[in-house]
Write a structure and sequence with these properties.
The complex is a heterodimer. Chain A is mostly helical. Chain A is built from ten helices and no strands. Chain A has two domains: 52 residues; 223 residues, no CATH class. The longest helix of chain A has 39 residues. In chain B, helix 4 crosses helix 5 and helix 7 packs parallel to helix 8. The chains are: A mainly alpha, B alpha/beta. Chains A and B meet through helix 1, helix 5 and helix 6 of A and helix 3 and helix 4 of B.
Chain lengths: 280, 263
């Protein structure tokens, strides 16, 4: 284990040295170099995750604890956001649909929007803000206060204990949160429809489920696993490789959110392209 | 008598042959660099059984890197390291891990796990290393460790509620709970008031006597050195500059050493 860890750590250290070297030379050149080196380091970090995740010992207790913290503790925020998004989207869409005499299509339109795109994307962004930054800050503070080193001298693999458990939890919990956020968002939409009209609960949800197809639900659900994985891996990478004391903690939390959100959009673009290939 | 340390291969070999059974730890020509920064340039030293060896030096002289090389947090670029008579290059990785499990490390900051209570901090190394322990045994070991450092009343609080001195003592308890043969202390009194520093220094001596541990204490605190040191080595620019007892250093005529020891 030790040799393996030091080998990978060696790769990461080498990359760091190159990154530092890249700061010399002309400005635009060094920015490109730094960008590609950062991408390379995240790739190495991700490969290490896939290598470690299969190896025993499996940290089930920590995985459960993290799932509780990441999943259950995020639900109130995600739920409130989902409700507001559903409500606001309905209220804002109504006047436009009225112009075309298509108010009756409101439940179907809102349902497709929420399930296909708004639910997963907004939940993932909220998740990046709450969980991504949390992972980044927590691991960074553990790094600068030598807690990660202390774990290593207790002969616990800190990568497995801290990173693998968090990334797995986030990957599994975000899809569940998106399902819950979609449900609460649709309820918000029902409330929004009833603010300026009267539609029964049964009728509203009948229209919602009639309008939804497998191709709306399935790809949207699958991409949330990738969102969760990307957010957690970026947050973990930023935290695990933090330096420069308390300043490094702030930077790690900040860049975990920025890069995590960016990853959500990038994955979304790819997912939409793949989905459209199957639809055509 | 204060010795300037210029170890040659032959000197070390002779010393090793004479006292091999007494050495718990030995380094030969250890080198470590970070890029162009040559932190450890040529370190050779031995730690005798039951001894408290204090390594003194200015900030940045490579003291912490030196003990991190011993536990494997940093990997030396060159040189040999013997732990309990075994050259770690000649044995399997699993055996190195087993040997290093006999080493305790007290971090400068205590490195306590913030998300865990005092009890959980102490249980963590036990559960990771000694899987077969029953709950009762774990409880009694935790109680004993806390009693040793005078923190029995703080078992169910989190480290953030502890003072600096208490955090250091808890860090020490967490390290001692596995009964290591060799203890490495990284600046154990840094950031503490003189009274607490004295308490921690006395605790280090008590630990050595009670568990018959051999210790390397990294510090630049002269009071701590005076209280704990059986032998002192001074590091300067990545090499062992001088070695001797406390009184040797106190009476030294060397200007740099005098500036270190003057009160």
């Amino acid at each position: 284990m030790e040799k393996h860890i030091s080998h990978i750590a060696g790769n990461e250290n080498q990359m760091k040295e190159i990154t530092q070297g890249a700061s010399s030379g002309n400005f635009s050149n060094s920015i490109f170099k730094k960008f590609f080196l950062e991408v390379s380091m995240i790739t190495i970090f991700t490969l290490r995750f896939f290598k470690e995740v299969w190896k025993p010992p499996y940290e089930f207790n920590e995985l459960l604890r993290q799932s509780f913290l990441i999943g259950y503790k995020s639900f109130p925020l995600v739920g409130i956001t989902g409700f507001i998004i559903g409500l606001v989207l309905t209220v804002q869409s109504r006047p436009t649909l009225m112009k075309f005499g298509a108010v009756s299509l409101l439940p179907a339109m809102v349902a497709v929007s929420i399930i296909r795109e708004i639910g997963p994307a907004i939940t993932a962004l909220i998740f990046a803000g709450k969980v991504g930054s949390g992972i980044g800050a927590e691991l960074a503070s553990m790094k600068v206060t030598e807690q990660i080193d202390a774990m290593q001298v207790s002969w616990t693999n800190p990568f497995k204990y801290l990173v693998v458990t968090r990334v797995l939890s986030a990957t599994l919990m975000l899809p569940l949160l998106v399902v819950l956020a979609d449900a609460v968002g649709l309820f918000g939409a029902y409330v929004g429809v009833n603010l300026k009209g009267s539609v029964s609960f049964h009728l509203f949800f009948s229209q919602v489920f009639q309008s939804l197809e497998f191709k709306d639900v399935f790809p949207a659900f699958i991409k949330t696993f990738f969102f969760g994985f990307a957010i957690a891996i970026v947050g973990s990478y930023k935290g695990y490789n933090a330096n420069k004391g308390t300043e490094g903690v702030g930077k790690a939390a900040n860049s975990a959110v920025v890069f995590g959100s960016l990853m959500v959009f990038l994955i979304d673009v790819v997912a939409v392209q793949i989905t459209s290939l199957f639809e055509n | 008598m204060l010795n300037k340390l210029i170890f040659s291969e032959t000197d070390i070999k002779t010393e090793t042959d004479n006292l091999k059974s007494e050495y718990v730890l030995e380094m030969k020509h250890l080198k470590k660099s970070f890029g162009e920064n040559h932190v450890l340039q040529d370190i050779s030293l031995v730690l005798n059984k039951g001894e408290n060896l204090v390594i003194l030096g200015q900030s940045g002289s490579g003291k912490s890197v030196l003990i991190k090389c011993i536990v494997g947090l940093n990997e030396a670029d060159e040189g040999k390291l013997f732990i309990l008579g075994n050259n770690i290059e000649d044995i399997k990785a699993e055996e190195v891990i087993e040997l290093r499990k006999k080493i305790g490390f007290l971090f400068q900051s205590g490195a306590l796990y913030d998300s865990m209570t005092v009890r959980e901090n102490l249980e963590f190394p036990l559960r990771r290393q000694l899987h077969s322990l029953t709950k009762e045994t774990i409880n009694s070991l935790v109680s004993e460790a806390l009693e040793n450092v005078g923190l029995s009343d703080s078992i169910d609080i989190t480290p953030s509620e502890l003072s600096g001195g208490m955090r250091k003592r808890l860090g020490l308890a967490r390290t001692l709970i596995l009964k290591p043969e060799i203890m490495l202390y990284d600046e154990p009194t840094t950031g503490l008031d003189p009274i607490t520093s004295k308490e921690i220094s006395k605790l280090i001596v008590e630990v050595q006597k009670k568990y018959n541990t051999s210790s390397i204490i990294i510090t630049h605190d002269i009071e701590c050195t005076k209280l704990t040191a059986d032998r002192i080595i001074v590091l300067r620019n990545g090499i062992c500059e001088a070695e001797g007892s406390y009184s040797d250093f106190e009476n030294s005529e060397d200007e740099w050493i005098k500036s270190f020891f003057e009160k």
